[in-house]
Structure formats: structure tokens, C-alpha cells
Specification:
The complex is a heterodimer of chains A (112) and B (166).
Chain A (H helix, E strand, L loop, with lengths): L4 H47 L4 H49 L8
Chain B lengths: L1 H17 L13 H20 L9 H23 L6 H13 L11 H22 L4 H24 L3
The chains are: A mainly alpha (112), B mainly alpha (166).
């Protein structure tokens, strides 16, 4: 029995798309929340500076913090992408190995 | 986001060509206890912010001192718990990072869970808020600023930790 490569490609695409479509919804929601909250923080800092409600020292702290939080946001996005890449990889390998097993009748144990 | 996903596709390609055919684990395992502790401490944090939402006077700081210290201690313990988890497949991430470094793009992947930095930021925010409360008291706007900092960082930590449940 030979492998139907067109079907294999379609199955790989389905497996990858399924992971991406599920994960991207979560990542988009997270991004939207973070961007809104960071924008609100910038607005509150401006408001506090204009009204003189925070000291110069506290103003500098909040401005530095905003930068730190933006960096942590980017790093978190990177972390989420790492998880997504891992899931795509395992899904793709699962499809390929499953196809070979079906074709050859040989059990290929995936290393975990 | 689309650019980031293009980069993700590139990284996936590298992974496909660079590694042996096996299941990989690039991020730490999900820690249900850590996630549960995070949600609990988040509730306590919001209780603190609710109690000081209208601002504080430094004279009443001693009433809040223990609450601040307890929360800072819990957050720092959670950051340590997240940091000390084993990160598998470090060689795999090294190979991906080597490729990304060679492309001169500043998008290398950290070995450390990003929730560690987010939790450390929460501890820093609370420490600063506590100092300000003790020295001068806090007005309502300053409380809102500190609260939003904690909300941003906690969202980062909670989202990442829940994402590990795959």
C-alpha cells in the first residue's frame, strides 16, 4: 500500500490549521486585553502628570514600569507562540507517523 | 500579529528540518497547583485594591502593612515556583535561537517561562505601592495606576500558565 501524498498533505494542513485557529483566538484575545490596558495606563499617567497628583519620582517609576510591562507583554506573546509551535510540530509528526504506520503496518513509537 | 505568525512559521520550518522525528516539548509542563495559587492570590490582590480604591492616609498604613507583606511574599514564592520548573528540550530551543540569531532578528525564545518576569513585576509594583502608602498615603488615581499595573502583569502570568494546559 502506497501513501497518498495529496491526502497526507491535506491531513497535515488540517492538523496544523486546527491548532493555529484554536490558539490564535486565545492569543488575539490576550493581545487585545493587554493593548487596551497598556493604553489605559498611558492615559492615567498623563492624567496624573497634568493634574499634579503624583510626584516626579512616582511619575518616573510609572513610566519605567510601562516600558517593563510592554516588554513582558512581548515576551509572553513569544512564550505563547512557543507553545503553539510545539503543538503544531507534535500534530504534524502525529499525522505523518500515523500515515506511515497505516501504510506499512509497522508500529512506530513516537519518542516523548 | 500576522508578522509574528510568519516568524512562527519560519521557526516551525527550522524545527521540522533540524530535529529528529519525535514529539517535542518546548515549554514547561502545565502546573495546575501554580495556576490555582495564581487565581487565589489574584482574588486577594483585588480585595486589597477594592479596600483602598478611594485612596489611603499614611496614618492608617499599619492596618494594611501585614496584608502588603503577605501578598508580596506569596507573589515572590509563586515566581520562584515558576522559575524552578524544569524546562525541557533546551537543545531544541537553542537550535531555534541559533537560527534566529543568524537572521539578525531580535525574536529569540527565552528558556525561562515569561510568567516569572510578570510575577516579579507584580511584586515590584506592590512593593512600590506599599512604600508610597507608608510614606505619603495614596490618592485614588495612584491606586488606579498601581491596580492597572497588577492587572496587566497578572493577565500575562495567568494567560501563559493556562496556555501550558495543552
Amino acid at each position: 500500500m502506497s501513501i497518498d501524498t495529496d491526502q497526507l498533505i491535506a491531513n497535515i494542513k488540517d492538523a496544523a490549521s486546527s491548532v493555529i485557529s484554536h490558539d490564535i483566538a486565545g492569543i488575539r484575545g490576550f493581545s487585545d486585553r493587554q493593548l487596551s490596558a497598556l493604553a489605559l495606563q498611558a492615559k492615567l499617567i498623563s492624567q496624573a502628570i497634568l493634574s499634579g497628583e503624583i510626584s516626579g519620582e512616582l511619575r518616573d517609576y510609572f513610566l519605567d514600569s510601562l516600558e517593563d510591562m510592554a516588554r513582558n507583554f512581548a515576551n509572553t506573546l513569544r512564550g505563547l507562540m512557543t507553545v503553539t509551535i510545539e503543538k503544531i510540530w507534535n500534530a504534524v509528526v502525529g499525522v505523518i507517523w500515523g500515515t506511515i504506520e497505516t501504510c506499512t503496518g509497522i508500529s512506530l513509537k513516537l519518542e516523548t | 500579529m500576522s508578522k509574528m505568525y510568519q516568524k512562527a512559521v519560519i521557526v516551525l520550518f527550522i524545527a521540522l528540518t533540524a530535529f529528529t522525528a519525535s514529539c517535542v516539548q518546548l515549554a514547561p509542563k502545565y502546573d495546575a497547583e501554580l495556576y490555582s495559587d495564581l487565581t487565589n492570590v489574584n482574588t486577594e490582590l483585588m480585595e486589597l485594591f477594592s479596600s483602598v480604591a478611594r485612596g489611603t492616609h499614611k496614618d492608617s498604613y499599619p492596618e494594611r502593612s501585614n496584608q502588603y507583606h503577605a501578598l508580596i511574599g506569596k507573589i515572590e514564592a509563586l515566581a520562584m515556583q515558576s522559575r524552578t520548573r524544569p524546562v525541557p528540550e533546551s537543545d531544541a530551543l537553542k537550535k531555534i535561537n541559533q537560527y534566529l540569531d543568524s537572521t539578525s532578528q531580535d525574536i529569540t525564545f527565552d528558556q525561562q517561562a515569561p510568567s516569572v518576569a510578570s510575577l516579579q513585576k507584580i511584586a515590584e509594583s506592590l512593593n512600590r505601592m506599599r512604600t508610597e502608602d507608608e510614606d505619603q498615603g495614596l490618592n485614588a488615581l495612584a491606586v488606579s495606576l498601581f491596580k492597572n499595573e497588577v492587572v496587566i502583569s497578572m493577565d500575562q502570568a495567568l494567560t501563559y500558565e493556562s496556555f501550558l494546559n495543552r
